[in-house]
Every structure is written in structure tokens, then in C-alpha cells.
Amino acid sequence: MSYHILSPDAPSPLQNFQRSINRRQFFGKSATGIGTAALAGLLGSESGAASFPNEKAKAKRVIYLFQNGGPTHVDTFDYKPLLTKLHGTQLPSGYAEGKRFSTMTKDVSSKLVLNSLEPFARHGESGAWVSGLFPHTAKIADELCFIKSMHTDAVNHAPAISFMLSGAQIPGRPTLGAWLTYGLGVEGADLPGFVAMTSISKGTSCGQIFYDFYWGSGFLPSKYQGSKFRGMGDPVLYLKNPDGIDPKLRRGMLDDLAALNEIKYQTTGDPEIETRIAQYEMAYRMQTSVPDLTDFSDEPQHILDMYGPDVTEQGSYAYNCIMARRLIERGVRFVQCMHAGWDQHNSLTTELYNQCRDTDQASAALVTDLKMRGLLDDTLVIWGGEFGRTPFIQGDINNRPRWGRDHHPYAFTTWMAGGGVKPGITYGASDDLGFNVAENPVHVHDFQATILHLLGIDHEKLTYRFQGRQFRLTDVHGHVVKDILA
Question: What's the CATH number for 54-251+271-484?
């Protein structure tokens, strides 16, 4: 099949507007109401200027379980016996030379090696190494594809998260979910194509902020940005009609508002006016779809139990995981669940345990639930953060309650499941201390290129012209990691 790509000579928004004026005048005079007609036109072109119907696509949708703060790979999935052997001794020479760390790490040469907190064991037929901190994830090891050779360019949280999600450390680029909804469109009409949810473990000292640009659309039309579902109260504000306003009156108000917006569009050709009309219409439909989405009364008790005791607590990680499954069942293309608190500079022996407790069961349950429903084959689940954490200690080796690890971009672990990746494999490897990549390096742009490939998109062809340049998620880099493809 052919790809439809924006060329360097792509028409401007105003030219597009001028070419479509007759169609819009027709919609404006439609007896069915201008709001409904305008929405029909928008949904018909929801896939944007770049459309990628690809028969080789393995995945249709993505659930990204993003672990903010940088999970420590050497305490979770990357087993390094040498850490135990060298625990408390000075970091051997040759590992850290020329490496850049956060300003919290000063003289790297004086740092002491810190062992893994809990024992590792092999699990499943694949024999994957998993820490005792993840007993539930260990049970689904044969469903997972571990990538243990991830590396990134950024050493601090916000730039590293932005890089992982948008391909650039500086905010302002479209995020992965925005690119996918732009390139592939959405499957349903009653919910946004891209939804973001956030959570944080109780009692954590983590001060990380969930910035809106983590699910932003950058220079893409804003209809492709992620819709943030809140962790308390109504998931989306202002969906309920005010007292005295019934659905019929609301429908009439939206039609009149769409007519006013159409007049403005005829004057300016501003594509954001189209977005405004689409947002009003989506909100109208979400008045019905969101209450149904958040009503768990149709969930069997054994399914709720599988996700853990926090599953019905709005704003918890477990709640967001089961919501992610319910969202993709209703046609949402990309669900981004972000859980903060993995930033353990001086709290490994306390807060790391909390993080694993709060996320392990629900993550495993989501994969299991999707497989039980026949959804895992075409749903790509991703678990991982923006970087790993250092194999050396941050703090005093003699003060165990305050042990910590600093940010570590040079080697870290991510896992994927479903959606066309090989189950039960480990790809790549770090060195014997988990410090540097030793085998089959996977850069962030390689990872992004592979995700797009699984959804039937050539990462070099999904582009958008902005300020005189063709932009893409992977910038000018990236190669598909073919060895992990099923």
C-alpha cells in the first residue's frame, strides 16, 4: 500500500481551507445541524494528512506503562552477581571514564559499588531473571520481551522523559501518542484517541511533576494531544450539564457555537478552529461514554482481585491499569499511564519497595487480562522509565536506611509484551556491573522506530512540515530492532 506523506511543497492551512470551502459551505447548510456535520467531516479525516494503512502492522494500539523517575535496572530485571561480590568496594576503573552524571554525583572514581537489594531468580521456560521485588511480573516472564541494552542521551528527568516520549529533550515536539493518532487515526468516536493518566505511590518523597508536554501534540494540530484523565473526582471536567440544561438544549448550543466557529474559520482558515469544533463534539459524546467507562460494575470480582486491592481507588496505578484496558476496548489508540516515584536517591531500602508493591501486580494483571480477552496479540504493552540508576551508591554505605542510586542513562531495562514482539526473550545486555551496554545497544530513537514499525509505520516517512523542515519522532536517527519482532 502507498503512504500519504506531507511533501516539502505541502499546501498551507489557508490553501487547504480555500480548496475545501465548498464542502464546508455544504456542511454549514446541512439540515442535520452544523455541529454534527462538522464533526462528521473531522472524523472522516481524523487520520490527518499522513495516513498509514499497512497490512504488515502487528499492533493496533499501545498501552505505555511509563515509570517516572528511572527504575533501577540492577535491582529489578538486570541481574549482576558481580555487584554482590564487589559490594562496598571502590568502583573499578574503566567503567565511568568520560561519563556524564547528574550534579549530585561529583567524584565518580571514589564511588562504592552497591549490590542488588533482593535476590534474583530465573522464571518460566525462558529463564528470565527477575528480582524478588516483582513476584507477579515473574509469573508472566514468558509473555515479556526484555530489552536490557537501552541507553539515552539525557541525564535528568524532564529532558529524559521528553526525549523518550517525543524524541527531543527540549519540550515542544509531538509525543508518541500524538504521532500515532495523527498517523493512524482513532478507532472509536466517543472517546479521544490518546488518553493520559497519572499516579504516584502513597507516602513517597518524590517531587517529580507531571508536565503537560509529556502528552502534548507539539506543532501537530492540538486535536492530537493527549486528553488527561484526572485521578480524583470527575475524570474529565465539565462533562456534566449544569442544572437546568438538558441534552437537547446542549445540542442546540453546540450547533450554534459551531456555526460561529465556522464563520471565523471562513475568515482565517485557522486549523485550530477545526480542533475547537471537534473538542466540543467529543465532549458531548463523552457525557455518555465516560460514565460507562468508569463504571466497574460489569467487571467480575476475580478480574478486580487480579489487579490488586487498589483497583477501585481512583488515581491509583492499579485503577489506571484496568482503565487502560477498558479504554482500548472502546477504541482508544494510545493510553499513557505515568507512575512517579522511582527517583530513589536516598530511599532505595524503603520507597523502592513501595513502588514495586504498587505497580507489580497491576502491570502483570494487565498483560494477563489482555491475553485472556484476545487483545494482547494486537495491543503493545510497554513498561519502562526514562533511564536506569547507577550500580554505585549515592550516600553512605554504612547507613543502609539512606542508600540511594543516581540517574544512569548508559544502560537500562525496558520490557514489552504483545503487539508483535517475541515473547519470552531477552535482547541486548549490559556489562558485568550493569554500567554500560555490552551487546546489541538500543538507543531511544531505535526503540521509537520499532514501536512505530509494529504499528505499521515507517518512522522515516511519518513526518510533518513545520517552520520549513520535515520533522519526525525519531529526528534523523533510529533503526528498527528486527530481532525482537515476532
Answer: 3.40.720
